[in-house]
Amino acid sequence: MKLIAFDLDGTLTQHKTPLEAGNRAFLSLLAEHYRLLMVGAGDCARIASQMGYFPIEILGNYGMQYARVDGTGKLVVLREETVYCDREKIAATVEELRRRFGFTVYRGESTLFFPSGCATFPVLGTEATLEEKLAFDPDKSRRRALLPEMRAAFPDYEVFVGGASSFGLSP
Fold this sequence. Notes:
The protein contains five helices and nine strands.
């Protein structure tokens, strides 16, 4: 059977918003003929919840977690890798980058850490509104321009332009 992989945020849904009925119906039709895989930066539980526990395979945390939502709507985690993360060093580097890039105003947390060892640099903070996130860098050009400096600052991580207004760090 052939596999079709999707990205959730910004593709099938807006950033962290529920899967709409039309896209759910579309996925149901595809599932009759293909294996479906949702790929995302968030953890599998968040992705499953956002999708309303649609039966699908999920590759979360930049590939560090693999799960399946079964036909009863239960999330079954099949693989979960964790790597040590020096949270203090990452948080200090994020603060240095905030000053350098002028991202000193934010709401909520400055850095988001995941049990997998992945981290997120949410430019607007963890409590920014969806509208603020979507307006910040709609074509991702602002963050793409900063990628070389971000990658140099985190040599032990893969650094991605993530979400609507963040950078993702994956071991």
